[in-house]
């Protein structure tokens, strides 16, 4: 009698595999960081466009130390973006053996969509939300102050605004996936609406300056994304009820 080819792995073996995947991801990140660091000067010119259009010119630095911090901050964010597809692939390799064939097909279809939607959210933040908020804040203080901004503050504010928006844009996709698996239902999302709004308002307050306009410019899109998630969940749930064997196994 032949022994089964696929033997369940022990907890220690799972930890060893996870460690290997994390090390591989770290190596990719370090390589991407080195490459990104050598191209930061080109990225800087592109990211400084909102400041130039607001009439401030290029952000200033207060010493050589800030130059290094800004370079590493931008190179780090760029490297994270480059490493993200590889990280998703590693996560997939780790969890795929524990999924059924239909769950694998369902999950695999979401990886490219997740990358595209994240980039769409970051683009929305950079091209629309950040310039609007930045110009408003500059004009707000221009009448009373000689407004100047350091590179560290400028790029830190930009990253803290657009990266969370990219993550929040994933909400409808995550909701779609969880609804297909039967973990989330439209009824649950409806009951959680007021709590979700509160959480989104808090997140909006954390990533924006303490002024009403900036807060609304971020919070309103996030609330709309939640409502879109509810609509998507209803659509997926209706399809799942009509054909429960189509997406994943129940």
Helix and strand pattern = HHHHHHHHHHH
Quaternary: single chain
How far apart are the termini?
33 Å
The assigned structural class equals mainly alpha
Evaluate the radius of gyration: 22 Å
Nearest-integer average pLDDT: 83
Number of helices: 11
Shape: flat
> How is the biggest beta sheet arranged?
none
**pLDDT < 50 stretches:** 1-5
Helix content: over 70%
The percentage of residues in β strands lies in: under 5%
Q: What is the strand tally?
A: 0
The structural domain count equals 1
Q: What's a quick, concise take on this entry?
A:
By secondary structure, this protein is an all-alpha fold. The protein contains eleven helices and no strands.
Describe the structure.
- One of its GO terms (biological process) is protein transport by the Tat complex.
- GO terms for molecular function: proton motive force dependent protein transmembrane transporter activity.
- It comes from Kyrpidia tusciae (strain DSM 2912 / NBRC 15312 / T2) (Bacillus tusciae).
- It holds the Pfam family TatC.
- There is one protein chain.
- This protein is mostly helical and 250 residues long.
- The chain has one domain.
- 78% of the residues lie in helices and 0% in strands.
- The protein has eleven helices and no strands.
- The chain has helices at 11-38, 40-47, 49-53, 64-95, 101-108, 110-142, 151-168, 171-181, 186-191, 193-207, 212-242.
- The chain is flat and about 65 Å long.
- Residues 1-5 have low confidence and may be disordered.
């Amino acid at each position: 009698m032949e022994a089964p080819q696929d033997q369940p792995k022990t907890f220690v073996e799972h930890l060893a595999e996870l460690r290997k995947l994390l090390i591989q991801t770290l190596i990719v990140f370090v390589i991407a960081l080195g490459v990104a660091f050598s191209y930061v000067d080109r990225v800087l010119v592109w990211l400084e466009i909102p400041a130039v259009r607001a009439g401030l010119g290029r952000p200033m630095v207060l010493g050589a130390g800030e130059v290094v911090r800004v370079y590493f901050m931008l190179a780090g964010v760029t490297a994270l973006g480059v490493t993200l597809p590889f990280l998703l692939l590693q996560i997939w390799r780790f969890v795929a053996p524990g999924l059924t064939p239909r769950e694998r097909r369902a999950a695999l279809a979401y990886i490219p969509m997740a990358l595209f939607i994240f980039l769409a959210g970051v683009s929305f933040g950079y091209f629309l939300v950040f310039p609007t908020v930045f110009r408003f804040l500059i004009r707000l203080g221009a009448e009373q102050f000689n407004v100047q901004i350091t590179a560290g503050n400028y790029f830190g504010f930009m990253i803290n605004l657009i990266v969370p928006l990219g993550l929040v844009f994933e909400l409808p996709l995550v909701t779609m996936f969880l609804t297909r698996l039967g973990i989330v239902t439209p009824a649950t999302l409806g009951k959680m609406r007021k709590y979700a709004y509160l959480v989104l308002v808090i997140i909006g307050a954390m990533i924006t300056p303490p002024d009403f306009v900036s807060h609304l410019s971020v919070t309103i899109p996030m609330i709309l994304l939640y409502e879109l998630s509810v609509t998507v969940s209803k659509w997926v749930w209706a399809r799942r009820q009509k054909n429960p064997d189509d997406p994943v196994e129940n």
